[in-house]
Each structure stands twice: as structure tokens, then as C-alpha cells.
Input
Amino acid sequence: MLNSTTSSGKRTGILAIGAHPDDIELGCGASLSYYSNEKVYIISVVMTPGCCGAEYIDCHKESQEALNMLGCNKLIPLNFEDTRLYLQIKEMISSLEYIIENETPQD
Output
């Protein structure tokens, strides 16, 4: 069984980051499911809405449902422009730093 606390007693967790909805589920869904069963806190961040080529589908909603089934505790959908992430590196880093500082459990 995975030890879900550090030697200092702080809870460990996973921050899963995907460029598009379904990237996390397809890329590491089995691992997330395993760790959620081990009571590891999981936050998933999806950088884009994934609407390029799927204008009539709510990809974030589908992703939320799938990540919930896999045991993720929280989904944070961001709105960076699909297919243009390489132009938004600085802003994405700032967003992830904010999430790490403000959205992850500090206990």
C-alpha cells in the first residue's frame, strides 16, 4: 500500500495536467484510479476546452465525468486557446503556479 503522507506528516497528492480534455484519462487514467484507491488526493488540470473539432460537445463536462469515475478529487478546467499552447507558456506556468499555491491541500 502507498504511504499517503510524507515523513513530516504532510499528505501527498497528484497534480495531473493535460493539454486537452481526455488527455489525462487516456494517458494515466489507470494510474490515477489505482492511487485514488490508495486514498491519494488527485487534482486534474485541463489546459484547453478541447473545442477544436468538437464545437458541439462539452468536452470539459465529459472529462469531469470520466475523471470522477477514476477517483479524481478535483478538476480545474482552464481556457487556454486550443492548438496555440506553445504561444501561451508564460501564462500557463503562472496559472499552474497559482493552482499549486492556492488549490492544493496544505495539510
The helical segments are 23-37, 59-70, 89-102.
